[in-house]
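New to this. Please check this fold:
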Amino acid sequence: MRKTVHSLVLGSMGLCMAFGVESKSAQADTTLVSVRGLTLQGGLDIGGSAFFVPHANFGAGSYAPQKNGAYQRHKNPVYGEFYGKPMLTGQWALGHGFTVIGRASAIGATTLGNGDAEEVSQTSGTPRSIYLEEANLGVEMPVKLFGNPNKLTILGGRQAFAVDDGFLIGKGTYSAGNRGAWWYAPRFAFSGPGVIKLEGNPVRADVFMLESNSDNDIDTGYDRPKTKFVGFDVSWFVNRPGGHGENTYADRAAFVTLTYFHVREADTSSHYDYSARGDREGMNVASLSWGGTLFPIKQLGISKNFTFYGDFVSEQNSHAGNGYKSVEAYGMFLEPGYRFSMLPWQPSLFYRYTRYSGARNPEGSVKRSYDTFFLYDGKRYTYGGYWPGEIVGMYLAPLSNLEVQQIDLTATPPVHLLNAQDSLKLGLHYYDLSLLYATGAGLKPHTGRHISDELDFSAEYTLNATTSAALAGGVAFSGPAGKALARSGVPQGYALPDLGHHAGIIEAYFFKHF
C-alpha cells in the first residue's frame, strides 16, 4: 500500500496562514490573577471545518478501515472536524528585568463523517481525543552583547517552536488516527528538554534540543518517527516600522536565516518500514532561508512592493539504515512576489517553484527522497501555505520526488461586512504538480511525470484579531502520473474503480479565540 502525502508531513491549511504560533501573543487573553508581579491569564481556542470531496482521488475514492480489517469505500467523502484548546499562561516579574514564564494547554478534537479523503483514511470511525499540548516553564532575562541590549529566554518542557515560517521546523505533533482533526491539525508542541532564545536586533538566535511527540497507539500506526534532535538557528533581519522581529516573524521586513540540526535518535521500528525515507537517526540537516524585501530599489517600487522568499534544505546521513548506505536529499523553494499597491484592491501576485528530491531507482543504495521533517504550512499571505493544493497535494501527491509550480493571486476588496475593521481577502491559486521520476514513485517508466493541474478559489474573512472564517473550492485535472498514483493507492484485493480526469473540493472553516 502506497503511503501518500500525509505519511510524510504535518500541517493544516488556511488556519496556519492567519493564526500561527507567534500570533497567539497578539490575542487578548482574560486576566485571572494579577498581584505583586504575578499575572495568570486564561484563553480558549475553538475551530471547526467541513469538507465535501467529490470524485476523490480522481474516482479511486477514499477507503475507511473497519474494525474487522476490511475497508469501506467512499467515492465522494464528506467529513467535518472540531477542536478546542484551553490554555493558561503565567508571568512572575522578579525585578531587574528577570521574569519567570510558563504555559500549559490541552487539545480536545474529533473528526466526524467519513473521515479525511486520503485513499486510506487516517481519521475514519469518528475518532475523538483529549491530550496535553503545552507544558513549559522558563525565565526571561536582559543581557548585553557588543554593547547592545538583548533578551535571553530559557524555556524547558513541551512547547511550540518554529524557525521562520516553518518550512523545515514548525510542528512537533501529528494529528491522525484517534487524535482526530487531521486537516485542521491544531497540535504544534514539541517535547523538551527545551530552547534557549537570544532575541536581539538585528541578530537573533535559538539553540534547541527537542523531540517530536509520536505515539502509534494513539495515531493507529500513522504517526511519524519519534525524533530527538539538537541544533541552532541564527537570523539577521530588518524590522518593519514599530515591529519586533526578534520574536515575531511577521514583523521582519527582510531576513536571512541559517539553521542546522542533528538527529540524535529516531524510531526505526516496523511502523516506519514503508517509509519513502532512509532512517532519520544520525541525519544532519542544514538550511539557508531568506525572505522579504532583500534588495530595495525605490525607483522601481521594490522597496515596499517586491518580495523574494526562498529556502534550501540539505539532508545528509552516512548511516541511513533500512537497507541504504546513505541519504543525500534536498528540498527547496524560490518565490518572487509583487503587490500592486497602486491599484484598487491592492492585488498581490507571486510565483513559487518548489522541488523535493527523489531518485530514479527506489532500490538504489543511496536514498534521495526528501524528508519534510516538521513542516508547518507557513504563516504568510496565502491560503494553503506550503501545501501544493487543496485536492491533489492534500490527499494524493507525495512531498518527495516532486516538482511544484504555483501561481497565487490575492486581492482585498474595500468592503466591510460586519464592522469597519473587518476584511475579506479573495484568492486564486494554481498548482502544476509533476514527479521528478515516475520510476522513483514505483510507477512504470512510460507512465509520464505529470500528476495534475489544479485551480482553487478562496475567500478568507477576518472579523478581528480573534475571529476568522474561510470558504474555498476547487477542481483538479489528472495527468498520467496522477492516475497511476491513484491506482497504486487502492488497498490490495479491492477492485480498481473507474478513474476519471477530475476531482473537486468544497471546504469551509472557522476559528475563534476567547
